[in-house]
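Sanity check. The docking grid for fe (ii) ion depends on where the pocket ends up, so I'm generating a full predicted complex first rather than guessing from homology. Inputs follow.
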Amino acid sequence: MAESRSEDATSKLVQEIAQKGEEVPESYMIKNDVISPAIDASSNLWEETLLIDFSQLSPVSSSTQNELAKLHSALKNWGCFQVINHGMTSLFLDELLDVSRQFFALPLEEKLKCSITEDFFNGYGNASVISGDQTLNWNDRLFLTVYPEEKRRLQVWPQKPRKFREVLHEFSLSLRKMLEVFLKAMARSLGLKEDIFLKEHGEQGSIDTRFGIYPRCSRPDKVYGVHPHSDRSSITVLLPDKDVPEGLHIQKDDQWFKVPVIPGALFVNLGDYAEVMSNGIFKSVVHRVVTNSERERFSVAAFCTPEPENEVGPITELISSNQPQMYKKVNMKTYKQLFFETYPQGKRVLDALKI
Ligand SMILES: O=C(O)CCC(=O)C(=O)O
Ligand SMILES: [Fe+2]
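Predicted complex below; grid placement will be based on this.
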């Protein structure tokens, strides 16, 4: 209920602050600094080196070896790529963003029917607060587990817009297929048995979706949409807002690069579990979202994560005297614990897992 929410800045929805035209609260502004600039990478990088044709990743395709080599190099050097021919039509992707826009445009009262549940972290709310002195992220989100299906918390799935549930279900089916093809292709690109990452993931690995809104912000020089971070997932699939050209940045060798929006493409990045499983060969890319004063931005992210109980560690075949084991094994519980310990110190979980 709106009345029962406390009125401090940490529990306020960013959309409300923006709609009221209030000044950006201090709690969202980074201290003693401004956000470092990002550059445009060469168009060759996004149109060739980091562009993966999904239809060529399956073993029956004749040009698979080329595409696998490209995938290998993208994941080793950058930890991300854009994917085309992934089976979801542009029409469908537009619909996915549309239902998201329509949800966030609903009256607050309606959205609050989907309020986040403390026990499952599913539902609608502002970006989470991990430690008291943390600078906050300028976004609100609707977080919904879609797989395994029995973990869906339908009580917080929007009833409006009418097509929301149907579209999300269809998205989840495509994501499942995509995840399997990626995990198999990643293994083959390393010369491993194709189901080795799939097994590590487990049948009941989860897929969580996050619908995000980044309202217009009058202080883009000081306010992050999302602070620099790497994802907990093994693989994250992102649908960016095609109407907002700049938002997501990735980091490589201390330099920030803008991620361009390619119509019809999805952006895929690896998370920490993939870096662990690949014994550090593939990278979990550090990324951030910047805000802008002109337009609000929407995005839909899907985080694919191994089964919660699985102790995920580097694949034995990737450990040798030349390439000693780089990370300890980790399951969801220890990951979360390490996250709460490292985040306030500005460190990464991967640093804590290094042997
Ligand atoms: O909205 C985006 O473009 C990316 C968001 C993100 O990195 C995240 O939610 O982990
Ligand atoms: Fe992320």
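Relevant for the grid: Confidence is low (pLDDT under 50) at residues 1-10.
Also worth noting: Residues 105 and 224 are 22 Å apart (CA to CA).
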